[in-house]
Amino acid sequence: MVSVSLGSSRRNKTVRVELLGEEFEISRVGTDGDFQKALATLRELDGKVDAIGLGGIDVFLFIRDRRYAIRDGLKLMEAVRQTPVVDGSSLKRTLEREVVLHLSRKTDLIPPGTPVLMVSAADRFGMAQAFVDAGCRTVFGDLIFILGIPYPIRTVAQLEKLARMIVPVVTKLPFQLLYPTGKKQDVTNESKGRRFASYYQEARVVAGDFHLIQRYLPPALDGKIIVTNTTTSADVELLRERGASYLVTTTPEYEGRSFGTNVLEGVFVALIGKPWAEIRNEEYLELLQRLDFKPRIVKLN
C-alpha cells in the first residue's frame, strides 16, 4: 500500500505491519508540493499495488450529510484507473469519531466543558461533532487556519451555514492556497503564530490536522492536549519542547511514526476486499473492533 502525498519528502517512511494475519508493506511518498509529479507517481503505481492513498490533500469533505468534492483532489483520484484509491475521509467519519468517544468515556482527558480548538472541522466533521457530543466547548478554526481570517466559529449550526456558502467556492481553488504542501509543511508562520496565539491559549485541547496545528504554532503549549495524526518523532519532540502535556494520535504508531487516515483506509480497503465506493461505515467500524484499535496516548510533560 502506497500513500502519494503532496507533502514534504522529508517525511517519507516505509514500514511492514501484520494485521489479521496478513502482512502489509506501507510506504509514504512525498512529492514536495509538485502536483505534476504526484500525478506521474500515481499513474506509475496504478495496477502495481493493492491500494493507493492520497496524502497532503483531501478529495471529499463531508459535513453532516453533504459531500463536497475538491477539484484538485479529484484530478489526482481520477488519474488512477485500476487500483483502489482513497483519501481517508471514510475513516475520519468513523475512526476519529470513535477516538473522541473513547477519550471522553475511558479517560479523564476531556471532561464535559473542556475548551477545544478544532483547527479545521470541514475535513474532520466526525471528530468535531464528537467533541460537541462529549459536552466540550468547541471552537472551529476553519476560517482562521484555512483562510487566515481571525473569526472563530462556535456552533455546528454556524459551521454548516458557512460551509454551504463558502465551501463550494473554496473547493475550486488550487489546493496549495488552502493547505501547506511540500516544504511549507516544515515551516511555522511565526508572525501569524503570535497573531493567532490566543486561540491556542484559550483551549485545553487542540485537535485536527497536524500541519494546520503547526501552521501557526505558538512558542508555548503549556499543558495542552494535542489530538491529531500523521506525526513523526520530530513532531513529537517539537510538541514536547513547547510544553504540551499529552499527544493523542488517531492512527497507530508504526516504527516511531503515525500515518495519515488515507494510509489506514487503504489498508482497510485491501482487507475488506470490496470497491471503496461500496464499503459502508459499519464495515469500517466492525474492522476497527476486530483489530481492537485504540488511540495512542503519549504523555509528553
Ends distance: 35 Å
Inertia-based shape = globular
CATH level-3 fold name of the largest domain: Rossmann fold
Question: In DSSP terms, counting alpha (H) and pi (I) runs of 4 or more, how many helices?
Answer: 12
Order of helices and strands: EEEHEEEHEHEHEHHHHEHEHEEEHHE
Strand content: 15-25%
| Domain count | 2
CA gyration radius, whole angstroms: 18 Å
Query: How confident is the prediction overall: mean pLDDT?
Result: 92
Task: Describe, in plain words, how this protein is organized in 3D.
This protein has two domains: 2-88 and 258-293, 3-Layer(aba) Sandwich (Rossmann fold); 91-253, Rossmann fold, CATH 3.40.50. 39% of the residues lie in helices and 20% in strands. The chain contains twelve helices and 15 strands. It has helices spanning 35-45, 71-78, 89-106, 125-133, 142-147, 156-170, 190-195, 197-201, 210-215, 233-241, 261-272, 281-291; strands at residues 2-5, 13-19, 22-30, 52-55, 60-63, 66-69, 85-86, 115-118, 137-140, 205-207, 225-228, 246-249, 253-254, 257-258, 296-299. Helix 3 runs parallel beside helix 4 and helix 3 crosses helix 11 (261-272). 45% of the residues are buried.
Could you write a compact summary of the structure shown?
The chain is 39% helix and 20% strand. The chain has 301 residues and is an alpha/beta fold.
